[in-house]
Amino acid sequence: MLWSSELILTLLPFAAFNVASPTPRSRDKFDWSSKKALIAFGDSYTYVQGTHGHQNYSFIADQLNFSYDAETLLSNKIVQNQTATAEGGPNWVEYLTKCGLKPGLTSPKTCSKQLWDFAFAGADISTEYTPLHHNYTVSLVNQISQFKSYGAPVLQTFLKPSKSLIAVWIGINDVGDSSKYAVNFPTFYNNLTSTLFSSVDKLYDLGYRSYLFMNLPPLDRTPGNQATTTPHPNATQVAWYNDALASKAEQFGKEKGDVEVRVFDAHSRLSAMLDDPAKYGIVNTTNFCAGYDQPDIDTNYKAYGCPTPLDTYFWFNSGHMTSHVHSILAAELEDWLKE
């Protein structure tokens, strides 16, 4: 669902971007072990299915059913099955929190690290720059507005902002949807990320001070882009967006002063997997199994022309990575968060 529904070995932290030091100043110190919850926003790389969500798109609500009450949110459960994410299994936020990994239903409140996921598959940052994929799609800007109105007032009754980490992975659809625009792309991406952080300001006003941003994966190396000499988006576009994100994150940290802002270089980690797949138990990085969405794909993959199991593929489908890749990425992210 990358284009129809929807990630730095380099460390780029924090209120004062301390690139080299493994021991940031006390005001910048990030203690992942002390966090009780991950509150996530983004697109299909991040969304999880909820029992009160839009099927195949969200944990809760949509643009046409925007509001929800406390009972709906607190009774909502994470669904874990083959179609409950865009990856055929758990994704990075579930692996990172260990919340919702088991098949069936999980209440976020029962997890030692709670996962409250407000990402919406197919989301872009704002309709100011790209159109909605569907009339029910919730853009990143609206995800945060929705959370401010309906989510935060409920969650903050039992989750202090200081015990929550805000995670944002967005831009995948934006860069793909706009890849053929006739614009100055560095300026365009600068404007996109400015809007992103203007929206994040609302979370700051709600008291949140810990922020994790994921930069873009190597979108120029999706199966379709590997098969053409003119990929859309191309590597330069991806790099420009990632540069803009890093710059705006640094600016956000400096302006606020009392926040920790970390940008995880998902691009480098995922590129390393593509460059040396055998190290990660991956045998196919150039295409995906055509039967990825078949109910018996895990046990009957050869029937669909796939010589090896789904978890040996990097790409789950034309634009998403397999759950196996998400598990590796989440493990590396968890180690990095503890630094």
From TrEMBL:
Protein name per its UniProtKB record: Lysophospholipase A
Signal peptide: 1-20
Organism (species): Penicillium cataractarum
Keyword annotations of the record: Hydrolase, Signal
InterPro entries xref list: GDSL, GDSL_Est/Lipase, SGNH_hydro_sf
Molecular-function annotations in GO: hydrolase activity, acting on ester bonds
Record flagged with keyword Protein biosynthesis: no
Superkingdom as given in the UniProt entry: Eukaryota
Segments crossing the lipid bilayer: none
Pfam families (alphabetical): Lipase_GDSL
